[in-house]
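Need tokens for this chain, all 428 residues.
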Amino acid sequence: MNSVIAYDRKQGNDFIPNGYPFQDYVYDVQEYINKFNVEPTVRFINFYSNYKRVQTNKVKDNFIYMIEQFGSIEKLIGMESGYEDICFLNHIESNTIEKIRSNKGKLVICAFEESRVDIKSMTFLHIKLSKLKINKLYYITGNNWNIEKTYKIWCDRQGVEPIISIVNSLEQLYLKGQDLSQDNGTFVSLDEIDKKRNKRFLCFNRRIRPHRYSLISMFHHNDLLKDNLVSFSLERGKDLNHLGENRTPDLHTMTQIMGKTYLRDTYISYFEELNKMSPMTVDYDNLTNVMGPGCENKEPYLETYFSVVTETPFTESTYFSTEKVYRPMIQYHPFIVFGAPGTLSNLKELGFKTFSPYIDESYDNEISPFRRMQKITKEIKRLCSLSETEIYNWFTSMKYILIYNRQLMLEYGKQYGKHMENIIGELK
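Here are the structure tokens for all 428 residues:
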């Protein structure tokens, strides 16, 4: 018998996502928040439409019990305050639990679009599974590079066998490649590569996190905001401001990035000035509606010579990349990654070329957030100091790299659907 995707509950003729904590299924996110006063943790992803769906009470074995994660894993597993009762394990039918314990079905968390998962959440989940006597769970992450290794190290130190099998789907890579292969947006053409640009760099910042604030402050400090394309919003009361409880720069994180320096205090003091400039937009006036998939617009890339990619992690111990690092590659754009160390090394593992010696990429090997910030700052300032002729020649000298990366992104994009189906198929 072929594997099927099994669900515990139905609402009318429709299945309810597994692990859903309430009786009535509410699809709309805002309506859900208004009704239950918490954010949704599961939602249909639908990457595996070719698989038959059945109810668990109608299948004896050889089924996949899919938890389709929506949002953070901390909320899904009941680790975050206020979500203890929401934990998906609390909302699996007892008969289904017994089948999973007996290896008649596979328990899978599908987090294709989520890459951020750290060792604390993995160990928290491990302990919960152990208490329920569940000895196997598959966790499919979007693009995490080190969680499998750190989880196995933890298991070794505890003297326990791993319960969680972690699968890196590279979904973010394939998804951005698909944007290109399906013309989901507008893209710089080969004929447009040699176009002269009137600004130095492009830097998108949809959600402001502490490390992104430090970078924007650096731009402001060095008078680099007005003559480049930078987006950000510091507005309080908006989902886009992720600066912590008070929606202002966090001293601990700023110290990690800037050290106990006068410059750190200076950058923190810029908050009100930058807030008055906020929101700054580039290609879309409403940053809330701009998401990772789609939303590709070639114009900002045609106005600038390079991208400063502000990835989601910077000071964290878990390393992952999102669609952000792949966006410039589909637009023939060189880039500096303001993110976790090893990001460029990971890209090379996937077959991409990076930009050394045209860009000093030693920052990628720098574990210290403080020293990584210093190196990136120095390189951005260097590139911005080049004359018009120098920056143009610098850019065109990398044309072979830009063409190569764009073609590779296209190839990944063409394989998107098949790749995602194969990941689920391998669980059979």
